[in-house]
Amino acid sequence: MSSEKVLIVEDEVHARSGLTELIESWGYRAECAADGIEGLERAVEWAPAIVVTDLKMPRMDGMELLNRISELPQRIAVVMLTAQGSIESAVEAMRMGAYDYIPKPVDPVRLRTILHNASRQREADVELEATRRQLRDTGVLGPLVGSSPQMKDIFNMIERVAPSNVSVLVTGESGTGKELVARALHDLSSRRLKPFVAVNCAAIPETLIESEIFGHEKGAFTGALERRAGCFELAEEGTLLLDEIGEMPAGTQAKLLRVLEDRKLRRLGSKVETAVDVRVVAATNKDPEQAVASGELRGDLYYRLNVFNIHMPPLRDHLIDVSAIAEKMIDDMNERHHCTVAGLKDSLMTRMEEYKWPGNVRELRNTIERAVILAGTGMLGVEHLPPHFGEPGFAPAPTRSSRAMGESEAGEASSEMQRYLEDKNTVRVEVGTTVDEAERQLILKTLVSTHNNKTKAAEILGISSKTLQNKLKEYQSASTVVTE
Questions:
Q1: How many whole angstroms separate alpha carbon 7 and alpha carbon 369?
Q2: 9: which strand partners?
Q3: Which of 131, 149, 350, 473 is paired with 113 by a 20 to 30 Å CA distance?
Q4: Is the whole model's pTM more than 0.85, yes or no?
């Protein structure tokens, strides 16, 4: 049941009273007016959420009423009632901004559905405007937080670009919040009620990535036991984030470019093309121009995706935002872990603002999560930080979704491994250790047990050799960034 206000504007007495009674029976607050002039007066005074108006009326018809309502400061959804011979006029009204139309005699089921949808759309519009106001007033955009000049510039760019359908390329180091930018673009767009689908191109085996993105037909390849929609179709009318776009195989990049240009895709094994309406946001932690120069990223795809570029700065470049980001994370962690932490002590805040955060916001999140779980309540202090936090040589444990920022192999970093490996056949995990740190210890210890035989280690761990190589690059990269 809804308590939204609905104004019925209808010059025929019985139709007016019947519609008012019907709409009230659905839980709406309904009032009525006999023509457009009276309807406009009631709209100004009563501020309804929805106006249901006849098209043909004396003194002021529905088209003029629609035009006048559109000039009012409040947002009002207008639904047109049309006679059978006035459908063309109703379509014209839609072009002028009417929410919908319904022919006479009115079908109650259809009218109720239209009112329900209009009410939901209004709620979404109110929420969107509140988000934009929050952005302007406090420097918060959903999960993105920051009052530094860098973050304010990013927020302004997101707000300008979000209403369009153009592709956006989000760049920045691993852990800077690129996916959050994509979600903000989606939430501030007209697609916000449709799906948001995120795909990590680096996490999908090369043999499966085309199927995951474009879908496949039954029998398209061994193991294709049924028809499957790809990520493009799953994100229909919504937003698709292609994370780590530079890791996508060259052949798949070529097919992606064609989909972006033609707005059509062909599932693997299909002979027909399917139209798609999807906004694409791509993200990479690499320098895209260097990736193009090295052949990792197609130049034509880069230029097609890079209509707008939003670069997320590393956290060390806007340490002024650490406090606000940490406070937001504490709220999230309190809810997730049923804790009641009140905030951060000044001594802890000083330590955190002096640290360079090589893992960026993702590392900050891991640190806050660990601290909240350890404290449980009260204020977070220095004693809740990981051992040796910020000291020379301290290397944070990278998270599961971190990506390499360097090219050297971690498999050669035996000293890095040995810090975790006192016992050859046992992994000891203390309470408070993150899942990602436990995974890190398991991988490194397995490598020691196989005398650094990566193929054998990957087999024991049940992961692909490529995944293992990526993990090792992450660990070496984190260590290199700290020591440099």
A1: 50
A2: 33, 53
A3: 131
A4: no
